[in-house]
Amino acid sequence: MKYKVEYLDPEDLQKLQLNRLREVSQHVYNNVPYYRQAFDNLGIQPATIKSLDELKNFPLTDKETLRTHYPFGMFSVPMSLVREIHGSSGTTGKPTVVAYTENDLKIWSEVMARSIACTGGDYRDIVQNAYGYGLFTGGLGVHYGALELGAAVVPMSSGGSKRQLQLMEDFKTTILTCTPSYSIYLAEFAESMNIDPRKTSLRIGILGAEPWSDSMRRQIESIWNIKAYDIYGLSEIIGPGVAIECEGQDGLHMWADHFYPEVIDPKTGKAVPEGQDGMLVITTLTKEATPFLRYATKDIVSITYEKCPACGRTMPRISRIKGRTDDMLIIRGINVFPSQIESVLLEIEETEPHYQLVVTREGALDELEVQVEVNEKFFSDEIRTLENLEKRIKKEIESVLSIAVKVKLVEPKTITRSEGKAKRVIDMRNI
Ligand code: DLL
Asked: Rounded to two decimals, what is the model's pTM?
């Protein structure tokens, strides 16, 4: 299936984007006090926006904005029109809340169907969806897209590797959707079950939600004997389905008829030239429930507007995500802010505010170890008491992060002190 809009002439695409920008601006102006204020401060009326270029004068929206207006202050429609609500971690542990109207769910289904189609998937495929179902957008986003495409979807959700593999064999699944690291873990697990991952019916992997590299892609393609495609998205924009690779596997096509991209220097706020690295900023052009103007993703990318030599699409391509401008870690696809862990540790009487987070990749899966100093008084205690403390901290952190962590208590004054910024995170994953 080909979506014509993906091949529009750049001028026609820009016309479409400008019309949609005016519409969405009017919509947020009418319904969200935060945006009305921003327009009034600039002395701009949405209806008089003449070019896409005018966007650059507009303030950025980010996770912090959403947190300030938690939970529903950024909604542009009354709750009676909201059909679904999702969220992702915020810096304080409060999720950032996003919502979907009936039409937003249609758009989400469309962009996800287009994403699967862009990798060569179609109605004949059986999609084994191992992204988590829940507040996280991965599970349901892929699910809606697969339905829209007419494919069969197996809603596995994450984890349960033995069952994943059993059903993959029995159902003859052709597309696997999950994080890249989980796909490697699953292949290792397959070998322990005497299943040869190269001999399954899988032909495509649609992998994302966390950073990975080209060398990891080669590894995944070879262990599974499939083509592996990078998919990008974030809850605040729609979820998965913002951008994806085509058969050229050289940059991710961004569905710019719905999501208008800019790449800016995070320090100066100015646009960087095409091809240079900067922070990706996205304006949602068609969303109704939680549309955002100039959402600062904190993801570092470069962009090209050149027509794709591999597939002929004119939709701009972003590079793989090269890093982030903040300290958000992505562990097994879940967003983790060191400050979330810090706030747990600061509540624990027996520890000092000196800690370090060590991230490693054991086999294929990310491991997070929290090392924290115990105070002098407590350190001399019995081993059993220390073990109990370790368990208690582990439980509290896990309830905040919703992922498993290791906790290691260390002797007082053993974590290296720093005169400048404390180095809280040691990321030893080689990605
Ligand atoms: O991770 C949505 C998603 C689900 C994308 C399934 C792809 C597949 P959030 O939980 O809001 O949404 O996290 C968004 O994850 O700002 C990036 O930093 C990171 N991220 C997402 N996709 C990629 C990718 C989903 N392909 C944050 N490569 C984003 C690198 C990615 N980082």
From this structure: 0.88
